[in-house]
Amino acid sequence: xxxxxxxxxxxxxxxxxxxxxxxxxxxxxxxxxxxxxxxxxxxxxxxxxxxxxxxxxxxxxxxxxxxxxxxxxxxxxxxxxxxxxxxxxxxxxxxxxxxxxxxxxxxxxxxxxxxxxxxxxxxxxxxxxxxxxxxxxxxxxxxxxxxxxxxxxxxxxxxxxxxxxxxxxxxxxxxxxxxxxxxxxxxxxxxxxxxxxxxxxxxxxxxxxxxxxxxxxxxxxxxxxxxxxxxxxxxxxxxxxxxxxxxxxxxxxxxxxxxxxxxxxxxxxxxxxxxxxxxxxxxxxxxxx
Length: 289
Prior knowledge:
alpha/beta; 289 residues; eight-stranded parallel sheet; single chain; two-stranded antiparallel sheet
C-alpha cells in the first residue's frame, strides 16, 4: 500500500478567459502582502509590492496572491476603503506585466469586484464566503476562480473556536458547507478550489493532524490549496523562532502537502519552495511506476 495520496487532475476556469490545470504538477502561489502588519512581513509600498511579485514570477511562481488585510491571529479588521487603496494600484500595475494569474486575497465583495476589474482572475476568501454574503455573487458574475478556505470566527478570536473531536472530518464537513454556499450564489463548482486553512482556528497539534490527514479531503472532489508558510504552528516542532526563520519547517510542510495530495502550495519564499515542490512531484511520479 502506497503512502502517497492520489491526486486528481482538474481544469479550473478563471476570469478573463484564463484557466488553470491542476494536478499534473504542484503549482506554487507567491504571497504578496500589501499591508504593514503582516505576521511574516508585508510591503506597504506599491512599488515594493510590484517588484516582489515580478521577482516571484521570475523565481518560478505559477500564481500571485495579493492581499491588503492581515489575517494573522489577533489582527484588526481593515476598512474597505483602506484595503482598496492598498491592493488595487498593485493589481493594476501588475495586470499588464505578469504572465501568470493574479489572485486577490479578500473577504469583501467591493474589493474583489474592483480587483477583478483591474485584472485579477481569482478570489481567495479566507472566510469561505462566511463574512460577506454578497461576495459569492460577485465571483459568479465575473467568472473568476474561487478559493474557499476553512476557518472559524474572526482573526481576533479564532482560537476560541479551535475545538474539534475529529479535525479532518469536521474541516471536510465545513468545507462542504462552504461549497454549498458558493454554488447557491451561482459559482460553478468547477471554478472552486478548497483550502483546509492550516493555522486558522486550529492549534498547533490540530494543524499537524490536518496536514497528516490531507488525503481524506480528496473525497470533496475539488483541488486543494495548502498554505503552511511560516505559520506559528510550525514552532510546535521547531521551537520558538520568528516567522523569517521558519522556512525549513515550511519546506517540510510543503513536501508533505504535495505527497498527500495538494494541488497548490501558497508560500512566501518562492524560489526554494519551487525546488521543494519539484522534488516532491518527482517522488509522486515515481510512486506511479
